[in-house]
Design brief:
about 25% strand, globular, about 30% helix, Rossmann fold, OB fold (Dihydrolipoamide Acetyltransferase, E2P), two-stranded antiparallel sheet, about 350 residues, Ribonucleotide Reductase Protein R1, domain 1, 5-stranded mixed barrel
Length: about 350
C-alpha cells in the first residue's frame, strides 16, 4: 500500500507507530506545507489541504506539538471534498528546532523527520562562523546530519581560508564550496539526494537557498529576488515552509531565511557535540567546578592565551549554554502553570 509513499520518507519506524490507527479508517499522510495553521498533506491517493481537529488543538500545550513540514500525521480523509482532519502526530525520528524568540519562550520546529540539513552560507557578507556553530548545534540536537555549503565562491578571494576556519570547528562535517549561479561544485551534492531521503535547506536570507532548490528541482519553481549589494541581504523569498519532490526520488524542504538561531532546552547534548574541543579542554582544568574565568589552572583560559582556542568561540559557547539554562527555567515555570491549570479543570 505504501510503496508509492516510500520516496516521501515512509519507513518501518512510521509504520510501527501507525499500527494503532490501522483499523480506524484513517490514513498516514506527510505534511508538505504549513501556512498559518493550514496544512497541505500528501497521502497515498493524492494531496489535500487540512486542519487539526478541535481535540488536537485543545490537547496541544505548545507550538512544538503541532504538525510542521516533514511530519507524518494520522489523517481522517474526506474524499468527497478532498479535505480532512489531522487526529494525531506520529513520533518524529528527527527535527530541526529552535527557540521561537526571546520574548516568546516556545520551541519552534522548523522541519521534522529530516535526514540531512544543508547549511547554506554566503561567501560575500553572510559568512559568520559563530552563526554556523549555532546551526550545527541545532542539527546535532535534533539527530540530523549537517552539511555546510559555502555559496558564491565566485565572489570570494579567500575560499581556502574560510574552509579552514570551518574545518577547525567542525572537523567531521562535510564542507562544499559552491556557486549556484556559476554551476560550480554542485555535482557533489548528489551524494545526499538518494531515494527516500529528506533534505532541508537552512540559512539566512540572500544566501542563495531558492536558487539552489531551483537547480536541484531542475526548474524555476522558487522565486528568486534581488539582494542589496551593500550587505548581500534581501527580503525573504520564501514566506512559508514547503516540501518538494526531487527527480532522484527524495524530498527537499525549504524554510524562510532564519535570522536568529536561539537555543532550546534540548540543545545541551548538541552543544557538547558542537563544542567537543571545549568539553575536552575542560576535563584538564584544575578544579572540577571551574567557571573558566579567573580560576587558577584553567585549561580553557590557557588555550585561549596560547592561541589554541578563539576567545569568540568560547564566548559563543557561554552564550548558548546560558540560553539553554534560561529556556529550561522558563519551561519549568510553564509546566507548573499547566499543572495548576489541569488541576483546576479536574476540580470543576
Amino acid at each position: 500500500m505504501m510503496h508509492a509513499m516510500e520516496h516521501m520518507g515512509w519507513n518501518q519506524h512510521f509504520a510501527e507507530h501507525f499500527k494503532p490507527f490501522e483499523t480506524t479508517g484513517y490514513v498516514p499522510a506527510r505534511v508538505t506545507r504549513v501556512d498559518r495553521g493550514i496544512f497541505t498533506v500528501i497521502h497515498k491517493d493524492g494531496e489535500c489541504v487540512v486542519k487539526v481537529t478541535g481535540k488536537f488543538q485543545f490537547d496541544a500545550t505548545s507550538k512544538f506539538e503541532f504538525p510542521t513540514v516533514g511530519d507524518w500525521v494520522v489523517l481522517e480523509l474526506e474524499t468527497s471534498t478532498q479535505s480532512g482532519r489531522i487526529h494525531a502526530l506520529l513520533t518524529r525520528q528527527s527535527s530541526l528546532s529552535r527557540m521561537l524568540s526571546k520574548d516568546d519562550n516556545q520551541q519552534q520546529t522548523l522541519a521534522a523527520n529530516v535526514d540531512t540539513v544543508l547549511i547554506v552560507c554566503g561567501m560575500d557578507f553572510d559568512f559568520n562562523v559563530r552563526r554556523i556553530e549555532r546551526a550545527l548545534t541545532l542539527c546535532y540536537s535534533g539527530n540530523v546530519t549537517p552539511v555546510i555549503l559555502l555559496n558564491k565562491i565566485d565572489v570570494c578571494d579567500d575560499v581556502d581560508q574560510k574552509v579552514a576556519q570551518l574545518q577547525d570547528i567542525a572537523p567531521d562535517v562535510a564542507i562544499y564550496p559552491i556557486s549556484v549561479t556559476q554551476h560550480i561544485g554542485l555535482d557533489a551534492l548528489q551524494t545526499y539526494l538518494s531515494a527516500s531521503q529528506t533534505i532541508c535547506v537552512f540559512g539566512s536570507s540572500g544566501v542563495g537557498k531558492s536558487s539552489l532548490i531551483n537547480h536541484l528541482l531542475g526548474e524555476e519553481k522558487m522565486l528568486v529576488k534581488e539582494i542589496r549589494a551593500s550587505d548581500s541581504h534581501g527580503r525573504h523569498t520564501t514566506r512559508h515552509r514547503e516540501m518538494f519532490s526531487l527527480p532522484q526520488g527524495c524530498v527537499i524542504i525549504d524554510i524562510p531565511g532564519v535570522r536568529e538561531v536561539g537555543m532550546w532546552t534540548d540543545d545541551e547534548d548538541g552543544l557538547q557535540t558542537s563544542f567537543s574541543d571545549i568539553e575536552a579542554l575542560a576535563q584538564n582544568c584544575k578544579f572540577n567546578d571551574c567557571k573558566h574565568a579567573h580560576e587558577p589552572g584553567c585549561a580553557i583560559k590557557a588555550a585561549i592565551d596560547d592561541g589554541e582556542l578563539e576567545a569568540s568561540r568560547m564566548e559563543n559557547y557561554r552564550d548558548m549554554l546560558l540560553e539553554v539554562k534560561q529556556a529550561q527555567e522558563k519551561k519549568d515555570r510553564l509546566a507548573k502553570k499547566l499543572e495548576r491549570k489541569g488541576k483546576g479543570r479536574k476540580r470543576r
